[in-house]
Hints:
alpha/beta, Quinone Oxidoreductase, Chain A, domain 1, Rossmann fold, 2 domains, six-stranded parallel beta sheet, binds zinc ion
Amino acid sequence: MQTEAWVHRDKDSPPQLERITLGAPAPNEVVVRIAAVGVCHTDLFAPVVFGLPAVFGHEGAGVVQRVGNAVTKVVPGDRVVLTFGSCGQCPACMGSSPAYCTDSHHLQFGGTREDGTVTMGSDQGAVAGSFFQQSSFARHALATERNVVKIPDDFPFDLAAPLGCGIQTGAGTVLNALQPRRGESLVVFGAGAVGLVAVMAARIAGCNPLIAVDVLPERLALAAELGATEVLNAASDDVVARIVELTGGGARYTIECAGAVQSFESAIAATHRRGICALLTVPKLGQPFPFAPMPILQGRTLTGVIEGNSIPDQFIPRLIELQRSGQLPYERLLSRYSFADLPMALADATAHRAIKPVVLID
Ligand SMILES: [Zn+2]
Ligand SMILES: [Zn+2]
């Protein structure tokens, strides 16, 4: 079929809106007419790291339009949110940890289906698609049955879209991965969308003190409104000393989602000796940098968390209930854009003018 998508052709330039061809759904695939798509941090650095031309976007939500002949989970007309891809057959997938699927890197970033076949093309040649098995900066996306989750008829698409990555990452890190007990201390480094949702989730869990660290005063003010008991500005406060003081020796849990070396080092240093420091992203796009291992030897645990350890079919419905009950007010983080303004949504996210842009497609 023919559709329209934002195609990145040059890593230093905004994407261009182009006519593209989307392949017919394979037996396990669904075609989704995208109604809204969030902008997540991975979309911002993807053009620098992955092969171009490509269509990015991995927080789509919309209406199922067509299904492959083996699909049983959804039917045309169902409203769905799109999430990350997973194979369904490896030990991680079979063990209820799809975010750690053996084939995950290829499924999110390979530009093709799991079997290596391409899903997109334009009159200028092949275009890498299947980003997170969706490439949803487009009017239509090809997803797999495994990475679509049905949503209630009355849940708006603009709220649904970011559940597929950013919201489940922030909330799941606290509620699924760390599972703090009431009264335990937790610090979030980086008050972007993921970090602010982690603050909301830590408030649900009853963490105290609940500390947010950032360099932008307006984001720290928002973190305080959303449940942080203390906020620290890394540009002016002695963050590690203050956390040690506020927690009586170091935090039980720290979450690093700022993606800066300084923040990485502070998060480890501010963790209590038997505490856990969870990394949700990496500085320097994952390239090596000097790191002193002594704090780990001293009993601290450094771990990575992907997609909040979410089992999307179970966790996304739970997040919808938490949002509806007012406990997870992530709607406060959203800025809405028209489809034509998608490049502006990317630019605003990059410049920290928007916390969680959501692009609406009519
Ligand atoms: Zn797998
Ligand atoms: Zn993401």
